[in-house]
Amino acid sequence: MWLLSLAWPLAMLVIVASTGPSPTVPPPDKVSIFADLSAAELRAVRSFLMSRPELELSPSHEGPLAKNSLFLVELLPPKKRLALRYLDQGGPRPQRHARAVIFFGGQAEPNVTEFAVGPLPWPTFYRPLRFKGGRSVPFTARPMTQLEYKLLHGKLVEAMAPLNQLLREATGFEYLNGTCSAHREEGRRCLTFSDIAPRGLASGERRTWLVLQRFLEGFFLHPVGLEVLVDHRHLDPRHWAVERLWYNGRYFSSPQELAESYEQGTLVVAHLPPPPSHQLFSSYEPRGHFATDTPTEVHGAKVCEPQGQRYRLRGNLLEYGGWSLAFRLRSSAGLQLFDLRFNGERVAYEVSVQEAIAFYGGNTPAAMQTKYMDAGWGMGSVTYELARGIDCPEVATYVDAHHLYDADGPVRFSRAICIFELPTGVPLRRHFDSDFQGGFHFYAGLEGQALVLRTTSTVYNYDYIWDFLLYPNGVMEAKVHATGYIHATFYTPQGRRYGSRVQSHLLGNLHTHLVHYKVDLDIAGTGNSFETMDLRFENISNPWSPGARVVQPWLGAQGGVEDGTSPQHHPWGMLCIPDDGPDPAPVPHRYHLAVTRHHENEPSSSSIYAQNDPWEPLVSFESFLRDNETIEDQDLVAWVTVGFLHVPHAEDIPNTSTPGNAVGFFLRPFNFFNEDPSVASRSPVIVRPLDPPTCSRLQIQRWTPPSPGPCIAPDPFTYNGTY
C-alpha cells in the first residue's frame, strides 16, 4: 500500500493490482511528452492562430474589449491511455498539442472557446475542446485581463472626480490618472484599488467591488474606508456604471450622493494620519530589537552540497535516490507531476495542484463578498523570480518558465522553479542501544534529507509556496505554505466580530484557506480498489487472567475489496484525517477525500472560469461523484482537500509568516516493501564499541567520506525580478 496522510489515520485508499512489467526508469526523451511548451512552441501556436482569418484575432493589450483575442496557451497533456501505451508498451509517441483559450468578444453572442492546436512544433489544425456535459463558456465567466483593468481604472478616475476633495482631506491621497509610485518619497500621492470576486451574485453578472487603498509599499494594508461597486458587464466601457459605494460604515447610491453628504457636513470622515517617511508598518524595513541582542546582521545557517548534487535533472525528468518523475508548471493552475516512480515502479500517474480557495467574512461589502478561487487569477502564471538564499538555497538548481497568459507572446519568468536537497534537521531514523550500565551496544543513524521541488504563486496579496518533497524511504509530501499580505479591510467597530484590529484603521478579516489536489495513483497497472480502515476499540476478557478486562485498539476495514498482500499483488493506501472545518461551497472542497473513476473528460476539479461564475461552474465536481460507478478494480483518482482557518492578528504585519501556516499530505508506502527502502542509502553511520563495557575503542562504519568538507561560499546575492 501507499498511504496519503494528512494528520492522523482515518481512511485508507488501498490499491490492489497485479504485477506489471519489470520496473524501469524512463529516459528523458520519453517523459518529455509531459514537458511544458517551449517559447518556440508557444510562438508557433500563437502565429498559427493569428494567421487564421476566420478567427479574426486581435492583439490582447490593444483596442476594445469587443474583439477576439488569444488569452492562454499551454500544453494539452496526452490522453492517459496513449501516454501509458507509449511509456509501458512501446506504442507510438503521442503527438504534442497545445490548449488555447480564445475570448470571442467581437461576436454577436460573445463566448470563450478552448481549442486543441497541433501537432507541435508546427501546428496545422485546431479543433474545439468540450467540457463535460457539452456546455459553452459564458463570456462573463472569463478571467480578468490587463486591458479590462486599464479600462476599469479609467472608469474609476471618472467616478472618483467628485470625491477627490474628500479623499485628499481624509487620506492625503487622491485617485488620479497617470503614473504613480509606491515609494513614499517619490511621485504623486495616488490611490489604487484591489478588486473582489466573485463578480456579482448570480451567473451572467460582472459587478465588482473595488477596495480603494493608498498606493504605498504593501498597499493591501492601506484601505481608506471607501469601497465601490462597478457594473462592467457591457463590452463598451461607456455603459459601465457605479452602482453602490460604501464609506466608513455607510452605503451610498452614487459618488454624487457621497460628495453631497461630505459637503453638507453629515458625513463622518475617517481621517488617516500621513504615512511615515521610513519604517512604514507594511514594509520589510527592520525596526525594533530582540531582547537577547544575539546577532542578526550576519548570515545564518545555509544549505550546502559539499560533494556536489545527489539528484539529477535531465529536461523535465527529475531523479533522486529511488525516485523519478516528470514535472511541468501549468500557467492555469501550477505544478503538475507525471509518471511518479520509486525504484522504477510507477506510484502515481499524476499528482497536481488543482485549486486554492480563500473564503472571507466581514462587515464591509467587499469583505463579505470575497471568495477567492485562485485558478481564476492565473495561479500558475504568477511564478515570479525565486530569490537565491531566501526562497531557495543558493545551491539550488533554478529553472525558468515561459507563460503565454494574457500576453501577446511568451513571457519568460526567470528562476520560476527551484530544486534542492534539504537537510530536514532530524534523522530519517536512529537508535541508541544502551547496555544500561553506562555504555552501549551500538548507535546507528541515517541523516534526514529530502529533495524539494518548489515554485511560488503570488496571487496579488497572497504568496503561496508550493512544495513537493521526496524522501529516501519512499515517502512523498505535498505541502503549501501561505505567506504574503493578508486581505484586509477598513476597520469599523461592527467589523470586530469578523477578525482582528491589526492596525488603527485596519481589520484583518478571518478566512479559510482550502487547497485541492489530484492524486491519480497507479500501482503496477490501473486496476485499483478503495477501502477505509477505521481505528476501533474493543473491551474483551483477558485470556491469561480470568476476571480481568483488556481495552485495546483494532483496525476495521470497510468498503472496497479485501486487502491483498500476496507477492502477486501490490496494496497501496491513503490515510486521510479530516478536521472539523467548515463546509464551503465550491463542491470539490466539501470533501476532504473523494475517490472517483478516471475519465478523460474529468481532467481537473476546477477551471479558470469558476472564480467569475461559481454559481453555474463549467466543471461540476459533484457530477464526478453522481456517476455512482463501481470503484473496485478500476482506474481510480483521489481528490484531496487540505486547509486551515486563518484569524489574522497583529503578528501578520507586515506579512503572514510561514510557521503554522502550512498544510499538505503524504504518500507513504504501507506493506509495499519488505523493509524500509532507505536501507539502500549509503549515508548511515554505525558505531560499535570494540571493548564493551568500557567503550574506549570504537568502530565507526560509514560509506561516505569521513568529513563533508567546507561549504563553498556562493557568489554575492543578486536579483533581477523582471519577466
UniProtKB/TrEMBL annotation:
Gene (UniProt): Aoc1
Residues in the signal sequence: 1-18
Q: How is the cofactor bound?
A: Contains 1 topaquinone per subunit.
Please provide one cellular component term from the Gene Ontology annotations of this protein.
plasma membrane
Q: Where is the Copper amine oxidase N3-terminal domain?
A: 160-250
| Documented EC number(s) | 1.4.3.-
Q: Could you name the active-site residues?
A: D374 (proton acceptor), Y462 (schiff-base intermediate with substrate)
Annotated Pfam families: Cu_amine_oxid (PF01179), Cu_amine_oxidN2 (PF02727), Cu_amine_oxidN3 (PF02728)
Kindly state which keywords UniProt assigns to this record, in alphabetical order.
Copper, Metal-binding, Oxidoreductase, Signal, TPQ
* Domain spans labelled Copper amine oxidase catalytic: 302-538, 590-678
Cofactor or coenzyme needed = Cu cation
Q: Name one GO molecular function term.
A: copper ion binding
Q: Which GO terms describe its biological process?
A: amine metabolic process; response to antibiotic
Top-rank EC class of the record's enzyme: oxidoreductase
Organism this protein belongs to:
Bucco capensis (collared puffbird)
Parts of the chain that traverse the membrane:
none
What's this protein's family per the entry? Belongs to the copper/topaquinone oxidase family.
Whether Signal counts among this entry's keywords is yes
Annotated protein name in UniProt? Amine oxidase
- Where 2',4',5'-topaquinone occurs, the residues are Y462
